[in-house]
Amino acid sequence: MDYDSDSDGSHISATPPRDPLPRRPPQPPPKPPTSYKSTASTKRSSHLDIIFKLKKPSSSKHDKIEPVPEPEPIQQPDLPSPVGNFPFQIRRPSDQPHPISIGRSLETLPAGFFSTRRASFSKICKPSLNFEPETSPEITAEPKINGSDGLGSTKTCNKKLPNLIRGDAPLPPVKLQKRSEEGNFVRLNFNGYKRKFTAKGKKMNSYSYKSKYFKRSKRRVKSEVDTGSLCDEEGLVSEIKLQSKAEKPSRCESVEAAISAVRSAVSEENLVRLLKAIYGYDLFRDGQLEAIKMILAGKSTMLVLPTGAGKSLCYQIPAVVLPGITLVVSPLVALMIDQLKQLPPMIQGGLLSSSQGPEEAAETLRMVQEGSIKVLFVSPERFLNADFLSIFSTPNSTPNFVSLVVVDEAHCVSEWSHNFRPSYMRLGASLLRAKLNVECILAMTATATTTTLQSIMSALEISSTNLIQKAQVRDNLWLSVSLSSNRMKDMLKLMKSSPFLEAQSIIVYCKFQSMYSSQAISNFYLHWILQSETDVISRYLCDNNISAKSYHSGMLARDRSRIQELFCANKIRVVIHYSLPESLEEYVQEIGRGGRDGRLSYCHLFFDDVTYYKLRSLMHSDGVDEFAVNKFLCQVFADDTSSHSKVCSLVKELASRKFDMKEEVMLTLLTHLELGETQYLHLLPQLNVTCTLNFHKTSPMLLADKDTAVAAILKKSEIKQGQYVFNIPTVANSIGVAPGDLSNHLQNLKAKGEITYELKDPAYCYKIVKVPSDFCSLTELLTRWLLDIENCKVWKLDAMYSSAVFAVDTCEKTHDCNVAQQTTYLQERISDYFRGDNNLDVLDKMGQNSPFLRADIKVFLQSNSNVKFTPRAIARIMHGIGSPAYPSSIWSRTHFWGRYIQIDFKAVMNAAKAELMNFVGKDAP
Ligand SMILES: Nc1ncnc2c1ncn2[C@@H]1O[C@H](COP(=O)(O)OP(=O)(O)OP(=O)(O)O)[C@@H](O)[C@H]1O
């Protein structure tokens, strides 16, 4: 395949670029869904005409690669915005001038449509959303959630701010921000003022002082008072709660006494006493006491509490009472660090992460073994490590036995959740019991549908009677939604209106990062630059005198943690979604960043159809076909030998391109092959498998005479430019040692000055346990499973989009648009969704066909006749999404990139399949 070909001749198009298309017949009436699995048949047709304004298209390549577009000026005069009202109108799509109904027309977009600037803003003279709640609560209203805030909260932002992506950026490659739960958002100190505080000490747990993570700039932290604020040069202010040293001794004594009391009798009275002694709180919040009692009774528990409702306390209290270690499994290092920081001073904590140096990890393990760590945070990948597991396979009498395993973000266990992680599949109850000898498991999440809960509880063997579930959205969050065709302008207006204007801290969630090309210093190359939407928006806000900082996964960890620290402890009063979330789970989790101290907070969501279409396409970016799964399986088992002790490896990048499969998808398949009904393989920790080695002291032959490893290296290496290049597992297998042992041996030789070497090519490593007897049925099974996951993601997005459309519609109907009405509607909708209500209305606004689709595919195939395509690869290109074998940096240059984003992905795949059959006769896959 020629990736360098810039011109594919695809400027010749069957689609008349700017002519209006014939109308499609109206959509059939909606059908109620049956289950998320049968997405295609369960989605309801739109009863609304969803429209959007078509901008003058740009078909020039150069238009596509313009730098970040600035928002267009508002064409119409500003309407007065009454205080407390939305500064613009919430409207149904049909309010837009010159509507083009997606239901009836516009099956294709002119080339480059999505690369044009944003549609211009138009104001509508319709009733506006009134932000005055019926009961007129103040923004400083007291907590509404159960229980009191006692000493106030120290824990505010932190963790799992979901992986977001981008908004309506111009076409060249649409790309989700690197998936990370740390989030991509703009954080604001709306008032932008600076305050200087001095403070007396930092809150630390007894272990944390050793960690590099807790070093803080002395310039910014000085000690004086118990509660202070940090302030950086740009005026972002964050409050930190600090613990007075004088308080410690008496507190420790009362904690000891309270722990003994609970150990002798797990009564409510004793637990409240312990709560007071450790945290200073007077009351448990809803669900906490019940969960703690259940865990202390040794019962595995499923806990579903909203974000910020106080889940951490539900394992921290048992951790001090139970005799052994509490292992907390978290999906992200940032999350672990944050949770470790939040441990009360009397709970000794530690963490093990891949980002630690060997000395730091060894020190933590030493402390674990001597029993001086009570709470240990680990990633699920750690469970692949036999050495780690062996530490805990000890009798209950030793200091390092595990009393409790906490699975945080437990929804990651389920493939039907919004954030499935294959490594979480490893946390099945049978493995935890067998390897860790643990009886009690606590699974915690803030967002899970009934289906997700069922799959978590079945994997972790938690009885249905041990489910503690409270409302998914706290009632101190006021929710509103508006459709916007110029989100930047609308957001600015929103922020400059009440009550947003009064808020000190605002989070703006963004979705995408996009690649923009820019002329490089040398004129010969075009460079692609990753630009995060958060950067664009924060720059725009700063230009408009609002102090804002960008925070996204593409930033340096150091910069990120500085911004996080500065903002973290602030009481976030406003959450703005600049882009549609991918699911109601994601929405709920993100709005949960607001009002964590229980005070009233406002959450506004902007949505638009363009973002919806882009996201809908992206939901198909992980999908794979039977053909690819079959090729993948053949490769995985290609190395089968009679000896099952041999280690096989699959270089991630190469395999990903070869099978056109994302790395996470390959890992999902491999994990299924290990943990599915039949165990076909045993996964090992990932390794860099390609070694490039130089000899320095002794000649290679002489060294090989006395060293069998070196002899094997000489035998199995290729010599490239005088260097020995070999595969670590291959050499290790040939001398019957583990790859890790060979690596250690190489390190010794290096220390003696004999060799230098470099390792590259991260690879999945595994041992084959059993070769499948029937590749075809296994292929079919795995493909079906992945397809169900793909459909589930699409359904979740449709449910999110429909909720936004219906919330706007609800407002429209009342002509009064009070934010309370939207809040009530969204709360009900969210609870129906999480309950798994089968009557949930879900719009299906995707077109099913276009008269030009087949003809365009034909032209595309003709102009790329030297390239092999699958129907899915063609559909991805027509939807403007890159894949490992057809990267967006190359394929976004085609004229057809993203042209059929509004036609259902499967319909495009079917058309591509038919055209491929015509084009290559019987050879189409
Ligand atoms: N009983 C209580 N009384 C007062 N404040 C509490 C109580 N329990 C917890 N909190 C405070 O509530 C805040 C949020 O708690 P926590 O971080 O445990 O929430 P969470 O449910 O784990 O949130 P997330 O879903 O983001 O992980 C913390 O500041 C915590 O100290």
Architecture overview:
- The chain has 925 residues and is an alpha/beta fold.
- The chain is built from 29 helices and 25 strands.
- 34% of the residues lie in helices and 15% in strands.
- The chain has a seven-stranded parallel beta sheet, with helices on both faces. Strands 13-19-18-14-3-17 form a six-stranded mixed beta sheet, sandwiched between helices. A five-stranded antiparallel beta sheet has the order 20-24-21-23-22, with helices on both faces.
- Strand 4 (227-231) and strand 5 form a beta hairpin.
- Helix 24 (775-814) runs antiparallel to helix 25 and helix 27 crosses helix 29 (905-920).
- The longest helix is centred in the last third of the chain and has 40 residues, at 775-814.
- It is globular, with a radius of gyration of 29 Å.
- The chain starts with 38 loop residues before the first helix and ends in a 5-residue tail after the last helix.
- The relative contact order is 0.14.
- Bound molecules: adenosine-5'-triphosphate (ATP).
- Residues 147, 149-150, 153-155, 159, 281, 283-285, 288, 305, 307-313, 446, 596 line the site of adenosine-5'-triphosphate.
- Adenosine-5'-triphosphate binds next to helix 6.
- Order of the strands making up the biggest sheet: 8-9-7-10-11-6-12
Shape, per Cα inertia axes: globular
Q: What are the bound molecules?
A: adenosine-5'-triphosphate
Name the structural class.
alpha/beta
Strand content: 15-25%
Q: Major sheet, described briefly? A: 7 strands, parallel
Enzyme class: isomerase
Pfam family, one: DEAD
Protein name: DNA 3'-5' helicase
Biased composition (Pro residues): 17-33
